[in-house]
Structures are given as C-alpha cells and as structure tokens.
Design a protein that fits this description.
Layout lengths: L1 H20 L3 E6 L4 E5 L2 H6 L9 H6 L3 H16 L4 E8 L5 E12 L5 E10 L1 H21 L10 H18 L3 E8 L2 H8 L1 H16 L8 E6 L2 E7 L3 H18 L14 E8 L7 H17 L5 E3 L1
Parallel strand pairs: 9-10
Antiparallel strand pairs: 1-2, 1-5, 3-4, 4-5, 6-8, 6-9, 7-8
Helix pairs in contact: 7-8, 8-9
Length: about 300
C-alpha cells in the first residue's frame, strides 16, 4: 500500500511539474462554491496577481477589461450551466493596470449524476496573436482607403466618386432633393507641364486639390479627382444658386493660390473652367445622362474662352 501511495504522490508531482512548467496557465474552479481550488503560479508572471489572490470567480471577472466583462461572464456561465466545453478571448488586466489578451479554454467536469462539479481550464496569452490580427486589419483598412484615394493628391479618386455619386443620386431621388455637380478642369495644364516640368506639375495638382477641398464646407459635400487635371465636387441638397456660389468660391480660391502660369492664354495665373448642373432626379432620369450634361457644360466653358462657369 505504501508503494502505491508513493507512486501516486510521484505521479501527482510529475503532473504538477508539467502543469506548472507550461506557458499555459492551468486552473480549477469548484462549481458549487464558485471558488478557485487551483491556479497555476505562472499567473503571477503574466498578470502580476499572486495565485493566492485568485479566490473566487469575482476576482476573475473584476480583472477583466470593462468592455469584455459582461459578455464573457454571461457566456461562460451559460455554457457551463449547460455543461458545454467552451473558450473565450478577452482582455485581462495586469496588476499595474495594463491589459493582456487571454484565451480561456474551459472543460466542464460532471459528477456521476451528470451534475456540473467543476470547471477546469487553461489560460493562454494570445496578445501577440491579437496584435498581429489587428495589424492585418489595419493594413486591410489602409489598403481599402488607398484604393479609394488618389495616389498623388490624397483626395478621393474616381472609384470613390462613382460609389458616392450612386449613393447620393438614390438619396436625392428618394427624398426629391436637389443634387448639384461641379466638374472642373485646370486651364492649359498641358502647357503648364511643358513649361514647368512634370514634377512641378504634380506639385501644382496637389496644391489645387488641397485648396479646392476647402470649398466643400458641409460633411456630405464631396470633392474628388476625376482624372488628369479634372476635379469634381458633388453637393447634395444644394440648389443651383447655392452651387453657383460654391463654383465662384472655387475660382476665387484659385486666384488666391497665385500659381504662376506663363503659358496660359487667359491669365498670368493658373485658372479653372467649371461646368455646373443641378437636378432633382425624377423616375426616368439617369445618373449617366446628368453627368454627361455637366461634362458638356464644362466643354462649353472651355469653348467660351476658359476661366469661366457654364451651367448645364
């Protein structure tokens, strides 16, 4: 009998050594009392709290990020009552007030009558994994933003414009609100590039983009690069007189910019031509036709000597 006791003790020592040498943190909770009957000493190295300080499930819940606390506790209690093994990812608070991402893997132990007797499990530090996941999400978001941004000027590009145009067109049609569109073109930009070079030409486009962006004053006003030296401003819930005022403001901003253009045939300074259109979309109106009409208005502004505004 003595040999058997010694063997059991040795086996227990082996299991204990194994448990306490792994990076995963083992623990056991008695279901009836909701008290920790064991937690691995590794917990202190990871979170700073001593094993003795883990008395009841209250310590476990209170040492959790406030945003995670409610749902994790509710989820784990519900799963445990149902006798279902489960796992949960949450942020555990360290003794000095920082947070570590934990994955808690829980096994439900039942007695001979099938009643829940205890919960045993392992806590894993998954902070590094979570940080990597977040970096990937941030990178994905950045790529999405880049795909909707013009690489040179940093303002929304044609792809984003098409998306917003479609949305605002449907909104204007549904609520029977006016929608105004400005299409702008830098006058004699090819000659500007030929005269000053492409590097200065690119810098010029950046300056124009940043300056004209400031003319879009409301949150839903939308300014984008249409391509080349063309820009577009979309003005929801804006009637024609208000849109004309914004077009005039764009021209004034260009004058204030004072970009020299020796090869221009209309001014010593860089100027823009603007086509403008306003519509309350009816059931038979098509977005593509409206954009075409405003584009034609820009063409007429160019035909009329440039540096002017023409309405569709």
């Amino acid at each position: 009998m003595g040999d058997m006791d010694t063997s059991i003790t040795q086996n227990n020592d082996v299991y204990k050594t194994l448990l306490e040498s792994t990076k995963a943190i083992p623990w056991r909770i008695d279901w009836k009392t909701m008290r920790f009957s064991y937690i691995g000493p590794q917990i202190e190295k990871l979170l700073g709290w001593s094993p003795e300080s883990w008395q009841t499930v209250n310590e476990w819940a209170e040492r959790m990020h406030p945003e995670d606390q409610q749902w994790v506790v509710d989820f784990c209690v519900a799963q445990s009552k149902a006798g279902v093994d489960h796992e949960a990812d949450y942020r555990a608070m360290t003794k000095d007030g920082h947070y570590v991402w934990i994955r808690d893997v829980v096994h439900v132990v039942r007695d001979e009558q099938g009643e829940v007797e205890a919960l045993i499990g392992f806590m894993f530090d998954i902070t590094e994994r979570k940080e990597t996941e977040q970096k990937l999400l941030d990178l994905q978001k950045e790529l999405e933003e880049l795909s909707f941004k013009d690489g040179l000027t940093g303002i929304p590009n044609r792809r984003m414009l098409d998306k917003v145009l479609e949305e605002e067109w449907m909104t204007a049609k549904r609520h029977q609100q006016p929608l105004s569109l400005l299409v702008m073109d830098i006058d004699f930009f090819k000659q500007y590039n030929d005269c000053y070079g492409h590097i200065q030409g690119d810098d010029c486009l950046k300056q124009v983009a940043q300056t004209l962006t400031s003319a879009a004053t409301r949150s839903r006003d939308f300014f984008a690069r249409f391509g080349g030296e063309e820009f577009v401003m979309l003005l929801p819930e804006t009637d024609n007189p208000a849109a004309v005022k914004i077009a005039e403001r764009c021209q004034q901003l260009m004058m204030k910019l004072q970009i020299s253009h020796q090869q221009s045939e209309v001014s010593q300074l860089l100027t823009i031509s603007i086509g403008i259109g306003t519509i309350v979309p009816g059931p038979h109106d098509q977005l593509v036709d409206f954009v075409e009409q405003v584009d034609q208005a820009l063409y007429r502004a160019k035909e009329s000597g440039r540096n002017c505004i023409k309405a569709a």
